[in-house]
Amino acid sequence: MQIIQNIILAVIGFSGGIAVAGGVFAFISILGIIPRMADRMGLASHIYQMETVIAAGGIAGCIISIFQVHVAIGTAGLIIVGLFAGAFVGSLAMALAETLKVFPVLCQRANLKFGLPVLVTALGVGKGLGSLFQLYFVRMK
């Protein structure tokens, strides 16, 4: 009976994971992050390769998370992975903000005529410092 329960639990978990992953990748596709990034970086001819790498990274992250695979990458590897993960989350957040036209509305309501690059930089630095604060002070307890 325990085997049947484990099989059912595995099927439900796998189905839920597929639904969430499909939703995330659909969200990324609808926002058009990959073509926009490829265009800005001059890599428009490599969009399919970029999509494949992003999907492979998502799959690898899921496998490492689910099976709790311990990868000995050291501090330098952890920093590199953290930078890539932060760049991905930042790109996703900025694409969502751009799609929802957050910055034009904010600038209009705050009567902001100059300093938009400073505002965007401050948002990024604040996000980074908040993440470091959470990592070192909240999770270490």
Furnish the topology, listing elements before pairings.
Elements lengths: L1 H30 L1 H9 L5 H20 L7 H26 L2 H8 L6 H23 L3
How far is it from the N-terminal to the C-terminal residue, by CA? Answer: 40 Å
How would you sum up the global shape?
Answer: globular
The helix/strand class is mainly alpha
Oligomeric nature of the chains:
single chain
User: What average pLDDT do the residues reach?
Assistant: 79
Description:
- This protein has 141 residues and is an all-alpha fold.
- It has a domain at 2-72.
- It is 82% helix and 0% strand.
- The protein is built from 6 helices and no strands.
- It has helices spanning 2-31, 33-41, 47-66, 74-99, 102-109, 116-138.
- The chain is globular, with a radius of gyration of 19 Å.
Provide a compact summary of the structure:
This protein has six helices and no strands.
Provide key terms for this protein.
single chain, 141 residues, mainly alpha, 82% helix
